[in-house]
Write a structure and sequence with these properties.
The chain has 13 helices and 17 strands. By secondary structure, it is an alpha/beta fold. The protein folds into four domains: 24-31 and 142-287, 3-Layer(aba) Sandwich (Rossmann fold); 40-109, RNA polymerase II/Efflux pump adaptor protein, barrel-sandwich hybrid domain (OB fold (Dihydrolipoamide Acetyltransferase, E2P), Beta Barrel); 293-366, Ubiquitin-like (UB roll) (Roll); 380-451, no CATH class. The model is unreliable at 1-5 (pLDDT under 50). The structure holds iron/sulfur cluster (2 copies). One iron/sulfur cluster is lined by residues 375-381, 391-392, 395, 423-426, 428.
Length: 453
């Protein structure tokens, strides 16, 4: 079945959500291509959620591709590795894609650096659960869906909790992005292998692979593969709807259960993992390859040659865009990630980091600088919110700076999917105001906690 074949019918889904134009055709048939090495790599120490890694190298030190150059600094932290053979040219403070500056390590590439060919598998069969968690942390693996949450923390099942289902997220519901799609089409064996390795330690009863129905080739390839396994893995086609790939929405669609406010998927005995992350697990244990590269969709109507690229972590974004032919004269905005949740990127002189799932170049037509009008109480945002929040009221309260009152409307549950902003005919920047409100409320809670200790 090709990617353009008829979508599977009667697919499952969640309530509410939106249907933005997909734009997947720009890159969903582009095979993953390898980014050639560049002269220098910049590796911020804080690429993941949690404590930044601790540098292990000094200026002038020679390093090998895959060598650990920074260690985890605590449990919620991961190691960092060199993507090339080279020399540490600088340890300093560098610009990051988030727009801030962070300590990091610069590596000048050895012109004779080669891609690793010697495979040194890690013997996971002899590891206990603790050893497995420590190995994943040491491999620098984080969630590759964009959040960059340390995977070993997610895989550490707390006392009293149980993982009954592993749920792989292959939805990739953000418009334009196709890296997960290509990963499923080109590395299906690694995905199944990663599930089986992970399940040696989690001992779940079953795994699901959730895929939006607009990826029929991935659905077919993985369905054929899972049929050969004794461990039950079910490929579940889901309706094409945003934000289908959000953890809570996926669980609702597949299990018909709602993750309650303030709770996590594990409270329903579910562990959710991105397909790229599970591939990274397989590659580490089978080949000894730590997380030194990731697949990035580089796309957009204002990019000359959209592509899916296997990029060494630390590569300058400018070089990746050049590999894809550069931007057109129509380019109006660059985003990191998809158009719904992606962040506007002001500089291309920042590196690709572990959380970079996409680089999106939008043209003038897709960039709408809305004039903001008053709320007309049309209720469209309420109909769109997948969490059944009340964006109308939260928007009105945010306008008045009534942050505490927003708590009563569960603003902290909002995961900033932007469905409400997308449908608002008055151009009200709802999600932006919820982001601000959550930041203020978090800071306030932290201050109050400090005061009481
Ligand atoms: S951004 Fe928040 S409030 Fe708006 S639709 Fe998404 S979850 Fe609901
Ligand atoms: S969609 Fe916009 S205009 Fe309509 S109720 Fe929500 S905030 Fe108001």
């Amino acid at each position: 079945m090709s990617a353009t074949a008829k979508f599977p019918q009667n697919t499952l889904t969640f309530s509410h959500g939106v249907h933005p134009e997909e734009f997947k055709e720009l890159s969903n048939q582009c095979k993953i291509q390898r980014m050639p090495f560049v002269d220098e790599y910049t590796l911020p120490l804080g690429q993941h959620i949690g404590a930044p890694s601790k540098a292990l190298v000094v200026k002038g030190q020679k390093v090998k591709r895959g060598e650990k150059i920074a260690d985890a600094a605590g449990f919620v932290s991961v190691a960092l590795h060199s993507p090339v053979d080279g020399v540490v040219s600088e340890i300093g403070i560098f610009d990051t894609p988030k727009g801030d500056v962070l300590p990091g390590i610069k590596i000048k590439t050895d012109p004779y650096s080669t891609q690793r060919t010697v495979e040194t598998p890690v013997d996971f069969e002899s590891l206990d659960a603790k050893g497995f968690i420590s190995a994943v942390q040491n491999a620098g693996i984080v969630g590759l869906g964009g959040a960059a949450f340390p995977s070993h923390v997610k895989f550490s099942i707390p006392e009293g909790k149980n993982c009954k289902y592993i749920m792989l997220n292959g939805c990739e519901c953000e418009p334009f992005l196709t890296a997960d799609h290509r990963t499923m089409v080109e590395y299906p064996e690694a995905i199944i292998d990663g599930i089986l390795i992970l399940n040696r330690f989690l001992k779940a009863e079953k795994a699901y692979i959730a895929i939006e129905a607009n990826k029929p080739d991935a659905i077919e390839i993985l369905s054929n593969l899972v049929a050969k396994n004794s461990f039950p893995i079910e490929v579940v086609p889901l309706k094409v709807k945003y934000p289908q790939g959000a953890e809570k929405m996926m669980i609702s669609a597949i299990l018909g259960k709602e993750v309650p406010s303030g709770k996590l998927p594990l409270d329903l005995e579910v562990l959710v993992c991105n397909v790229g992350t599970i591939k990274a697990i397989s590659e580490y244990f089978r080949k000894g390859l730590p997380l030194i590269e990731r697949i990035v969709t580089v796309t957009g109507t204002a990019l000359k040659k959209p592509a899916n690229v296997l990029v060494p972590i630390g590569t300058p974004m400018r070089a990746v865009i050049e590999l894809c032919g550069g931007i057109t004269d129509d380019a109006a905005r660059i985003l990191l990630g998809g158009p719904m949740m992606g962040a506007v990127q002001k500089s291309l002189d920042v590196p690709v980091v572990k959380g970079t799932s996409g680089i999106l170049v939008l043209g003038q037509n897709e960039v709408r600088d809305f004039e903001e009008y008053s709320c007309i109480r049309c209720g469209r945002c309420v109909d769109a919110c997948p969490l059944f929040l009340n964006p109308t009221m939260m928007g009105l309260l945010a306008k008045k700076g009534l942050w505490d009152e927003m708590l009563e409307y569960n603003v902290m549950d909002c995961f900033e999917c932007a469905s409400c902003s997308y449908v608002c005919p008055s151009g009200i920047p709802l999600v932006q105001s919820f982001r601000v409100a959550k930041g203020i409320l978090r800071e306030k809670a932290m201050r109050e906690k400090l005061k009481s200790t």
